[in-house]
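Checklist before submission:
- one chain only
- standard amino acids only
- sequence pasted in full

Submission:
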Amino acid sequence: MATDHATSTPEAPAVTRTRAKPLLASAAIVLALGVAAMIWHANSHSAPGAVSTTHGADGVQTVELDGFNGKVTVGVDGSQIAATAQPVNGDVAPGLEFHLDATTHVLTLACYDEHTGKGPIACPATEYKVSVPAGMGVKLQLLNGQATLSDLSGPVSITASSAYALAQNLKTSDFTADITSGTLNATFATAPTRVAVTVNSAQAALHLPGTVTYNVQQQTTSAYVQVSIPQAATATHSVQANANSGEISLLAN
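Returned file contents:
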């Protein structure tokens, strides 16, 4: 359904879309532009074509990034949720909007077409950067491309197809991944309570702290699971490894 995104209303301050101010090349340019360079506009351009939006963290438990293509970077920063789309190869970045489901406490980041105003659409191949407060859950669906998730401490869920996913320095207690025709490399700074990983014609390597034992359950079809972490059937830390025509490596840090 077409939506006019050019008009903003002061009654809905929870969602804003801004583009960062252009970098000024020199002090001479600063003087030439004067006061005009200090004016900020909603939906104004920064580095050519960049689009950004923010949302407050109140009432949000999980940030969902659904249907993304391209390069996605997710990290921890500040007390708000922020997202930026930076186009590549001179293309125009899609519009970005947050939508909060007050019942489920899930905040979804959606893309819309900057030209037609239609959306939500599958987010096109470009560069996206998302930051969340510490402890907030992240759910990512990557259709194609590359994802890097760093320092997350809330629940993490990754679904990726024909993609490479790198998760590093994780402090989450709950980690889920479903990888098809791609690769996952995840490193945990602290031992997660629950891990569930499924690969389909894909590979996954999980680097887990070797200071605790894990109850490892595995199910394979024409696949291989390498287990190099301490195991105990009574362990409170669990790892479920499901592999179909792929490989999962459970490695001790």
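Reviewer check: The chain has one helix and 18 strands.
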